[in-house]
Fold each of these.
Amino acid sequence: MPPNVAKLLSLSPMYKAAIIGAGASGCFCAVEMKRRHPDWDIVVLESAPAPLQKLAITGGGRCNLTNSFNEVGSLREVYPRGEQLMKRGLREFDQNDCMAWWEREGVRLVVQDDQCVFPRSQDAMQLVHTLERLMSRLGVRLRCRCKVISISDLRSSGGCGYHISLASGEHLEADRVVVSVGGCSSEVLGRILPQGVPLTPTVPSLFTLRLDDEKLRQLGGTVVRDATLSIAGTAHRSRGIVLITDWGVSGPATLRLSSYAARTLSQMQYKGRLIINWLSLNEMQTADMLEGLVGGSKAGGRQLANTRPEELTDRLWRHIIARSALRPDIRCSEIGSKGLSRLKNSLCADCYDILGRARFKEEFVTCGGVDLAGVNLNTLEVKGFPGLYVTGEALDMDAVTGGFNLQAAWTTGYIAAK
């Protein structure tokens, strides 16, 4: 080892473990690790002025910290990337373990009808203060405004453990390092991590879609309870609640689709065609529904605008009628087979040009990060780098909305600590 390097390392503070990133996963990992090893000197390094800033605004400040999973048929539905990791991880620390953990720490929880779990206080800061208090009480060192610029594997210079360089010019050394920098780009991760850690390019996930149709956007605030969205030319689709906005579409079905199609939409530069099935019925079911709605002697004399499916609002029904090149005041008996066919097509496959994506409130999730093929899924240790672990969103793993991303943060933090 060169003398100048040896001198530098001899002056660097020594830690048993250093955690990079004071987000949900990093802080949770620090608490669990310190409980297992009370004698360890553990430091959490955070570039922001305060820890857990993203947790504080999650769920509109209410913090959807997990999900009951009662309505999840397959993990692939909620974890488009990282399904196998979460299948193993949930055996170690699942949603029930998570809820019990927070309840033991004095955070009372409530499970909503949609199976999302929130603190009964409806205040994300209760979770933030709980983690801060636990770290302080256990003796975890928390250092904010400490930006890590690189992590070096000391084995390459004949040592052991890892050397951490900070933007301030300070240097640290740790036997073990946990990387929990959620939301970082793959370029930033590539600069921080030792050379040779495999990365998958990061792209945004969980966003709403901007659509090129002013007449649809004028229906902003309209909610459709059960619609199916898909991207033309792909197999990506999602079903659920759709909210029409003044820029396009949002709501759970849109966010879910953006998660499923995150990489595809990135490759398409967020252009393409969005197909909306307004009632989530196939063509035959829609044809039968329309026949029952507008056919027969009772409906024949009524105007089409006054003969709408109960699932659709009056304004949206009139919009669909116009998209079918029909007049709202046309009598049902005058529509004809061609008119019914156009109406069926508008209900089943209403197409809109995608102009781009829009960020969903304060939420921001990326897919991509440390490639799971390069990580031991049982321990989250990076293959070929003993003592280097990765958790949370720094992994190429992400989920749809509903508390699943935070469950992944708690689960992976727990596994790395263990």
Amino acid sequence: MAQFAHGGDITSYGDVIDFSANINPLGMPPEVVSAAEAAVAGAVHYPDPFCRSARAAIAGRDGVSAGRIVCGNGAADLIFRLCLAMGRGRALVCAPTFSEYAAALRAMSWDVREHTLSREDGFEVGESYLESLSMGADIAFLCTPNNPTGRLLDPEIALRAADICRRQGTLLVIDECFLELSTPVRPLTELLGRGAVLLRAFTKSYAMPGLRFGYALCPDEATAEKIASCGQPWSVSCVAQAAAVAACSRPDWPAMARAVIEAARPGLAAGLKSAGLEVFDSAANFIMFRAAGDGTLRERLVEKGFLIRSCSNYPGLGDGYYRIAVRSERENALLIKAVKEAV
């Protein structure tokens, strides 16, 4: 079987400390655990196909009417639904960025064009991206903070991109799945009024990737209904729906995690630099770096009990690029020691 294209595949590696998946270092809130456990008894019935309770809770949390919210089996589910719902045409994605945008687009026979982000510019989405966008597209994906670079999208660039998209009839989709664990938090909810779709998830911010819960905020109910119609009716389990409702009761949980991440990230970055690695600035709960050599650092660290994310399969990167999560200071220190021994 081919190597899994994403992080988090601990099943293949056994007893490792997983730095490949960028999850809230505090883990799952106890309220979410309790709600999920209690919901198992209800699994003898089909889950609510409309996710009514979860959508109502999200509406109260995010300030968007429930009719404009679509829930899915993680954000990846919604990305595929979006690409199916919008038919086919020309698409614009950045390189590097989350690979599922291009994967979903190509699966639905879209013509995908990549805008390459410059290493010299710190992989920032800037003026050159707006020029690429102005060349025309039917759909465009952006990610803030971008995965795997950790760079936040400049709000001014986002506003200008939304205006370009509105003028030329492009659907702008902005992925905010890591935003709650980033510094500063810059939600782009105002772009809903400019026709954009925002992707969010509890997967990372509430440490529930095994439950899978993502959602899309849409500019209008018609768009939401179109996206919802392009997925199976029961894509979100009753356990995941109950967990999502409970997560909405703990809006402080991501903020608590940010405090941990903000305290730990500088030391982790400094430790990587002291090992002779090129470390890229990040505002997220993960860090991208580049190591010289034969591109086998990931394998050498697995032997030492650590799993990191190779970024060799990201367009615009290649061998030697890696991404790691910001975990506890103790775990970060253990990783730095292992990296220094492995490079």
